[in-house]
Design brief:
This protein has about 130 residues and is of the alpha/beta class. About 20% of the residues lie in helices and about 35% in strands. The chain contains 2 helices and 8 strands; from the N terminus they run βαββββαβββ. The strands form 2 sheets. A 4-stranded mixed sheet has the order 1-4-3-2, covered by helices on one side. A 4-stranded mixed sheet has the order 5-8-7-6, covered by helices on one side. The longest helix has 13 residues. The protein starts with a strand and ends in a 7-residue tail after the last strand. The model has no long low-confidence stretch (mean pLDDT about 90).
């Protein structure tokens, strides 16, 4: 269960542009803008993904997984990532080592973080 995640960014404007496009297929938009901090929300309107200007120190790669309502949406996120020339870590596929219906794509954001879009439903039931 994920309530919210915050990521520090070297270039907040670049990260904003990246995530606004990448997550558009999931219905994610900027819901709150405080200048150096942005709150992104899905269809429920609740900011759950926050971007902030890096405050110094060494950053570490993080992994963020966003829920997709179906496999087609995972594929749309992949298509947008390609348009953004993002590094594709893993193209969309089933990951049976996680479970038999785990379908995800993994890409890098502008700060090198591992970003995933995942759907857990059985495609035969969609």
């Amino acid at each position: 269960m994920l309530d919210h995640v915050s990521v520090q960014c070297d270039d907040l404007a670049a990260s904003r542009a990246f995530y606004e496009r990448l997550l558009a297929p999931l219905g994610v938009t900027v819901a709150m803008d405080f200048g150096d901090v942005l709150g992104l929300a899905g269809p429920d309107g609740m900011p759950r993904f926050w971007l902030g200007k890096a405050q110094g120190g060494v950053q570490r790669e993080i992994h963020i997984a966003f829920s997709a309502p179906d496999r087609a949406t995972v594929d749309k996120v992949y298509a947008v990532a390609r348009e953004l020339n993002a590094e594709i870590l893993h193209e969309p596929r089933v990951w049976p080592e996680y479970h038999e219906t785990y379908y995800g794509v993994f890409v890098r954001d502008p700060d090198g973080n591992n970003v995933e879009a995942v759907n857990h439903r059985d495609a035969r039931k969609e």
